[in-house]
Amino acid sequence: MKRFIDALAVAAALFATQTLLAAEKYPNRPLRMIVPFPPGGGTDIMARMVGQRLNDALGMQVVVDNRGGAGGIIGTELAARATPDGHTMMIGSVSTICMNAALHKKLPFDSEKDLAPVSLVASTPSLLAVGNNVAAKSVKELIALAKAKPGHLHYATPGSGSSSHLGSELFKQAAGVDIQHVPYKGTGLAVTDLVSGQVTMFITNMPSVLPMVKANRVRALAVTSLTRTSLMPELPTVAESGIPGFEVIVWYGVFVPAATPRPIISRLNQEIGKLAGMQDVKDRLALQGAEVMIGTPEELATRVRSDLAKWSKIVRASGIKAD
Known about the structure:
By secondary structure, this protein is of the alpha/beta class. It has two domains: 24-121 and 253-318, D-Maltodextrin-Binding Protein, domain 2 (3-Layer(aba) Sandwich); 125-241, 3-Layer(aba) Sandwich (D-Maltodextrin-Binding Protein, domain 2), CATH 3.40.190. Helix content is 44%, strand content 20%. The chain has eleven helices and ten strands. Strands 1, 2, 3, 4, 5, 6, 7, 8, 9 and 10 form a ten-stranded mixed beta sheet that branches. Helix 4 packs parallel to helix 11 and helix 6 (163-175) packs across helix 11 (297-318). The protein is globular. 43% of the residues are buried.
C-alpha cells in the first residue's frame, strides 16, 4: 500500500510539473476559437472581439472556427472533445451551455463536466414589447389584462425552444398568467405581427425590436435584466415592475476543455478581463444591444450552475420541446 501511495504521489508531482511547463510555453502555435454558429451572429461577433484581444496580448494568431449546426450542439461538442492545452477555446452562451442541456435529455457532452469556464464576456437583456393596440402601458397593467382575459392574449417567439420561448414561459409562470404561444420561423416575422397587432407581446433581444420602438410602432414596457441597462436607462426592469427577481439575459462566455491547466485558464481570464476597460469594445457591444460582463472562472461556473437549474425547471413545468 505504501508503494502504491508513493507511486501516486510521484505521478501527481510529475503531472503538476508537466502542467507548469505547458503553461510556461503557452501558446506555442495559433489558437482556435470555436463558434457553434454560422458567421455574422452575436456569438460570432463576440468571438472575433475576444480573438483580436488575445491575438494582440499573446502574440499568436487566433483563428475563428465557425461550426454551426444542431442549435450549437455540434460546435460545443467539438470544443469539449478538443485537446485540453489552451489552444482550443469556444464562445458559449446561456443558449448553448444551459438551455440546450435543459431542452435535450441526451447531449454528447456535459456542460459542467466537459467544459471549463474561463470568463464571462458580455450580456444582452431582452425587451418586453407589446403592440400599440394593447391597452397596457406597464408590466403591471399587462399582467392585469392577462388575468382578466385568461388564454386570450398571445406571445410571439422565433421558434419553440428558443431563448425567447423559455423567457416568455418564465414570465407566464412568475406572473401567474395564461398567455398563448405563437411560434414563428424567425424573429422578423414575429416583429411584423407584433407591429400589426396579430400578437400581444414579444420578449426578444434589443436590436431586433428597438428600431420599431424608436419609430413608435411598438411599445417597450420593460427590460429583462435585473438592473436597468445603460443602453435604455429610462426603461424599468420587469423585476421592479411587479415580478421581483425576474431575469432573462443572454450572456456570452469563453470556455475551454475541462482538463485545461489552471495557469492557462488564469492567463486567458486576465487578458479577457482587460476588455472591460476598452471604450471601443463597449461601443461595439452597444451596437449589438450588449454590455461588457467580465468575471472570474468561478463566477461563470456559478452562472452556468444557476441557469442550468433555472431553465431546466421552466422546461419541466411547461413541457417545452426544441424545434
